Fold:
Amino acid sequence: MVEEDLLVNPFGWGVLILIATSLILSYRVLFGPTLADRIVGINTVTTKLVVILAIFGFIMKEYFFLDLAIVLLMVNAVGSLILAKYMEGAK
Amino acid sequence: MIEYFFLLLGESIMVFGTLGILRFPDVYTRLHAATKCDTGGAMSILIALTIVSEASPLIRLKFLVLAFLIALINPMISHAIARGAYKHGIKPKVVVDMYAWDNP
Amino acid sequence: MSRVPFYLRERLDDVKQRVLFETYEAQKLPKWEQVVLTWIVLFSFWTIISANVKAENLLIGGLATLVISLFMYEMLTEDIRRSGHILEKILYISFFVIPQYLFIMAFRLIESNFKVAKHAVFMDINPGIVKIKTELHSNTGITILANSITLTPGTLTLDVNKKLGETYLYVHWISVETLNREKAGEKIKGDIEGWLRKIFW
Structure:
């Protein structure tokens, strides 16, 4: 049921494109030359994940996914700020 | 029909942002690609979802709140990462660096 | 200013901070207006997030946000200037300033996306870090200005420097066009600073 809906809907193809770009970006997370590159990669992948959650909430008509997306966005903000502050002090 | 235009715009912006993150030479230019393309693409896709969704208007407003929070939080994080990377000691590949003139 | 000895510079910094702080205190909103503004923002956020318009839900949300806004009224509205009646101000902000800002920023954001795509494909970059001066002094105003600069095409804010009552921003520019401080400031800030000066200190 859900698998059929996912590929009939054009937003489902959008989810596939987002997952493909996240997989390509994991190169930057794994082999980034410096620490800052990895943090940029993680931040970008998490923003794409927020969009994927919102699209799933729309396709399955289960709107509590939006609350999960908002919470994930806020956790991402706090985590990235802590990582940036850590990087500022570390040598 | 216009929601598919917004969806296509958002997806292509995300793809070009990924290309930019892979190809740019140092952290600061990569942050340009990450921040702008993520914010623009995510807001575009969320506006498309707001238009096409059939839920009640309060739930549709939640998509707009999500887009507003992304637009508020993403530039702030990029600012924090850029400042942290400079203090960490990563030298930018630039033609002029006025920040190093004032903070020797 | 760079020839002044160090201890004198510190004294000057102190005096200037005090003068600026007094003019700022004189322009502040009254307390109940701050509470009302904070309550409106928090209550609309509660209503949208809970997505439920039953009477008891609205009652609980109104009471909780009222208690929170009685304690935290300084956080959101500390830097807003005083001008005119509060109702006039709310209508002016919500129907004139915010739509204008959103309309212009949407087009700047799309333009910056296409510009990043162009730079990513052709790699014609010429990056540099320049220093510009801004007229804003409040924390909220500087934050919104820095975020707007980050979203406009080709620029990214690196750091903020407040010295002697003047505020400087360090901006990473992906294709440097000029090194003159005034010309660079005009090109980078655009009209955004003028709008922010209407509301914030």
About this structure: DSSP finds four helices and no strands in chain B. Residues 2-102 of chain B form one domain.
